[in-house]
Amino acid sequence: MDNYSSKLIEDAVNQISKLPGIGKKTALRLVLHLLKEKPEDVQLLTGSILKVRNEIKYCKICHNISDNEICSICSNIKRDKSLVCVVQDIRDVIAIENTAQFNGVYHVLGGIISPIDGIGPDDLNIKSLIEKAASGSIKEIIMALSSTIEGDTTVYYLNKKLKVYNIRVTIIARGVSIGDELEYIDEVTLGRSILNRTLYDIK
User: Fold this and answer.
1) In the chain, what is the straight-line distance between the N-terminal and C-terminal CA atoms, in Å?
2) Using an 8 Å Cβ cutoff, are 121 and 162 in contact?
3) What's the pLDDT at 176?
4) Contact 122, 165 (CB under 8 A)
5) 79-199 has which fold?
6) Which portions of the chain are predicted below pLDDT 50?
């Protein structure tokens, strides 16, 4: 058991170490760093975290994070609304946007089908995607999901659902290695995989 000599320090370390990728040692280093900062700077940090938690919204159209009911991408008149890129989560939107190679809009599923984790189609934002397809305003849907078994299963399921709407369904080029998560792929490779997407034609 670690001895922090202060219950306040111990509580702060325990809370920060709950964050993904942060162990007790890193948490302690962060807490000690905050002790050296000006109180107003620490207040700004904690205030911004609380504000994100309490005030962040999810776009009514694409389910991306947003400050407003409709995100800045969906509300941008310069974006091609007939081109929809389906991604697993918000981190993938950020990764693709950083490539500056995509001018369509997104649809955030909020996960991928994974029976082992108890995640089925009903747990994802699939119904709203089907409704978009049924509206007749979409020309192409790009499947930009991680090339894992779960990702491929999700793509297969979505393609079956979308087939009746006669929409072009494509998948990002396999310059992305099998098993890769999109958020960890370099921007050049990810950008090329979007531009060199291929028709998804599994029957």
Assistant:
1) 57
2) no
3) 47
4) no
5) Dna Topoisomerase Vi A Subunit; Chain: A, domain 2 (3.40.1360)
6) 176-179
User: Could you say which DSSP state residue 74 is in?
Assistant: T
Q: Tell me, what's the pLDDT at 181?
A: 56
- Report whether 89 contacts 64 (CB < 8 A): no
Looking at CATH, the fold of the domain delimited by 7-55 is given as: Helicase, Ruva Protein; domain 3 (1.10.8)
Looking at the chain, list the stretches that DSSP marks H as alpha helix, in order from N- to C-terminal side: 7-16, 24-36, 39-55, 90-97, 127-134, 149-162, 187-195
CA–chain centroid gap for 119, Å, is 16
Q: pTM higher than 0.85, yes or no?
A: no
Residues 6+ apart with CB under 8 A from 78: 103
The two three-digit tokens of residue 159, written as one number: 């393609």
Q: Give the per-residue pLDDT at 192.
A: 61
In degrees and rounded to multiples of 5, residue 144 shows phi and psi of -115, 60
**CA distances (Å), 102 to each of 32, 75, 147, 176, 186, in order?**
42, 16, 19, 16, 15
Q: Which amino acid is at 179?
A: G
Token pair belonging to 71: 């995100």
